[in-house]
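Per reviewer request, we include the raw input and output of the structure prediction for the construct analysed in the revised manuscript.
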Amino acid sequence: MIITSLKKVTWAASLALAACSAPSLDEPAHPTRAKVAETSLPPVKSFRAARGTAPTRSNGDIARDFLDLSFALESGRDIPLLTRFEAPITVKLEGRQTTTLRNDLSQLLGRLRTEAGLDIRLINQGRANITIQSVAKRDIRRALPHAACFVVPNVSSLADYRRARGSVRTDWASLQKREQLAIFLPYDTSPQDVRDCLHEELAQALGPLNDLYRLDDSVFNDDNFHAVLTGFDMLVLRAYYDPALQNGMTRNQVAARLPSILSRLNPQGDGRPSSQRSGTPRAWINAIQNALGPTGNNARRLGEATRAIQIAQSQGWTDHRRGFSHFALARLLQSQDGLTANQHYRAADLYFGQSAPNGPHRSIVSTQLAAYELAQGKPREALRIIDANIETARRFENAVQLASLLMLRSEALATLGRLPEAQAARVDSLGWARYGFGPDWAVRAKLREVAMLNPNNRSF
């Protein structure tokens, strides 16, 4: 049986902005702003690697998270032994490459050395422990139809994976130690999609293979709100490679040593109280996956999203999982019932604000809330929402959200007659849009979509 770690295609792959009775993109628009000039766009922008913020939870909670992440797969299947690489760890990049990908990989390896304390480096010749192969999306989908990217043990290429598929060789749960594996990334998507895959898959190649929905400060979470490795993730990887742990240790053996490891690596976590956050039942996970997954009709998805909210309520959750349940339903409703979708986005924002006030969650919801207000002819309210969240999008390195908020800001400012500011925001958005959305046609399509939210750009 093949067990792979994969990043699923989810809502994070695209951004559709919510509006109540917003027109289609085919309707005529104001010629000065809604029509995108067919001129060359500015150079693509990118983020500078920033050190992750240290986790603020108790070491007791972090130890529990570490064990649950490290000794199970996303499917729920148990992993009997801790496996990791022996230092030094080498990485090789193959296939079609871009300057952006090379820079993002260099920044990530630098963070892994500095924050996680890993002896890891990029090589150009010879066999590497980790081969990152950049391939076409269609080749990834042929291998795993619902994956955007994935990582497999004991192979070095996609052809090697096809030959080994179905064997014990590619079964994570059968590993005794990690020596060689391959990560498959798509080259024909946006730079941000590639970078997000790179962070998640390299983290799982090095360390834990599971994802936990209860985590609000980690990429080890299938909700995909975090785009790059966090301070929590770096602490987990540092502990994963601590000298006190060894290849082949059982869960109980690791559990016995974790308290002293975390006390040494994260002393501020010893005195903090436990949050006592409950586990996530499989029924809720299945409902979320069915609601946002690639299969099923709209009626079924709406039913599954509604069921996720019902399960969250029955669990007594008031954390980000309750917020994500409302977010999922809002996503499905926004094209047919903007008013109800907006109510669920507001509910999501409320729960995100209570449980993850310092995370990226509210910034992601803010694009939807601001789009709704702009479509309702309330540019000042849209600006209020945008200005409260735009720096959060920048801090969490989400170019899709940052570009979208800047585009919305431009339209709101233009509506208020603040044209020089509107133009500046629009220009600023374009470089980030090229990183977040990719090709020029996708950037222009997003500009048109946002412009059509502005009532001044519509003909009725």
